[in-house]
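Weekly structure sync, notes
Attendees: PL (lead), two postdocs, one rotation student
Agenda item 3: pending single-chain targets
PL asked that the sequence for the first pending target be pasted directly into the notes so everyone works from the same version. It is reproduced below exactly as submitted, 276 residues in total.
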Amino acid sequence: KRVTAALAGIQGPEAVAKLVERRLAALEKARSFIDWPRIKEFEKDLAATLASITGEIGSGSASLAVALLLRFIATAGGVFARTLSSGRLEDLYGEAIEALGPLTVRLGPAALADLPDRVMALADRAGDIAPAMIGSLLEQASATDLDEWDRLLADKVAMLQPGHLAHPYRVLRQAVAARRNDLDGWIALENQKPGQLRDGLAVAEKLLAAGRAEEALSWLDVEEPSRLAYADALDLADGVLRRDFRLPARIALKARILEALGRRQEAQGLRWATFE
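Predicted structure, written out during the meeting:
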């Protein structure tokens, strides 16, 4: 298959694309389960398809390669549903996502503007790797593109509510807010998360870095300890079970905040009490 693709590449990327399109069409229609005796051959087949997209096609036509790469990534949901767990398959789709960035920077303005809608239309089919695919594209999106991404992601969160499935897309909206340097928007999205998914330490860290120490302190004080017990070797020796497994990180950050507020003696007292 690699040789065939290389020979087709002599005629140009369109000739290779026809070979890849046939393979992707078969992949999209397939429903049979792939067991262990066949998984290695299947992995090689996917690797050859991906190499053709990023190699012969990508070197000749970025727009064609991006279209086929998105279609390839969108097969992930179906592929993982009909195969046994395979680290190699996960790596292949990870490589496909990594290849998106270098190809999309070569797209023209019109193709880039159309990208968010095209990607979100494929998100459900891509399954669990969809957020990673979107995240790779957010890293280099323009300010205008970020607005469109945020709108589409907000629609996705609303559609998936209530439920944990909305969480990765809300995190992506926070990535957009971070790109815009919109700390208040980032915190507002954190507040929308269910209590067990809210990260008060992350909020406090960002607020402290922004010079808003009083607000940072309030976030540390309201965060609820984990419902899981935690103990390291010394805790077990002392017969102690802690509910807050991030206690060292929490106290270290709280002490830094207190020092930023000019309360150095209180910060040192907190460190000492925790040590005791």
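Discussion points:
- DSSP finds 16 helices and no strands in the chain.
- The radius of gyration is 24 Å.
Action: rotation student to compare against the earlier draft before next sync.
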